Amino acid sequence: DADVTQTPRNRITKTGKRIMLECSQTKGHDRMYWYRQDPGLGLRLIYYSFDVKDINKGEISDGYSVSRQAQAKFSLSLESAIPNQTALYFCATSDSGTGRNEQFFGPGTRLTVL
Amino acid sequence: GQQLNQSPQSMFIQEGEDVSMNCTSSSIFNTWLWYKQDPGEGPVLLIALYKAGELTSNGRLTAQFGITRKDSFLNISASIPSDVGIYFCAGLFAAGNKLTFGGGTRVLVKP
User: Fold this and answer.
1) What is d(CA B56, CA A20) in angstroms, rounded to the nearest whole number?
2) A79 Cα to chain B: minimum distance (Å)
3) Among residues A31, A40, A19, A18, which one has the least CA distance to residue A72?
4) Contact B44 A100 (CB under 8 A)
5) Cβ contacts of residue A28 below 8 Å, gap of 6+?
6) How sure is the predictor about A39, in pLDDT bands with cuts at 50, 70 and 90?
7) Contact A104 B45 (CB under 8 A)
8) Yes or no, beta carbons of B40 and A105 under 8 Å apart
9) Residues of chain A with pLDDT > 90: what percent?
């Protein structure tokens, strides 16, 4: 099945460390997204990319950076992790060719910053 | 930023009951999506709505795109234990190009 995968699934790190979360997809979708989820809150958009050469900030991009290495890969980096970046992180994809806006999510990465 | 108000924040269900939840916004949408998230997993798309007034079903789930284009409703009929989880609405504003998510409705089983 075409899928969205994220690695690692769980990560514990220390304040000040650089962390990279990876996302890859076999859906053939052109658009990819990174979201953050905190307890009791909905999903908030960090960055999104509509194709390999396109990177856009979302509503909470401070402290994060991204790289779209290929159409199928979109990675999220925390240059210097801080405790309030402890959260669930989700990657999502969508296909602009359908004319719809349905996004399909990966299983998530649980990040803990000590 | 633009926001979606989703209610209720949580609810208890008893097997066999019908339940409803809704999302509202002060701005006009041209897309409404409903997702379910199980513990430890990513959100899964349940229903997508693209036209004002549209009523769409997926099994025991029914969702409607409000006539004013500022709200949407999700109904679950004859609930079963596996309906437990968090349900999110998401919308695309008429002038926007990215989704905004509601805060979620946590569905729990009555003890």
Assistant:
1) 39
2) 25
3) A31
4) no
5) A2, A71, A95
6) confident
7) yes
8) no
9) 86
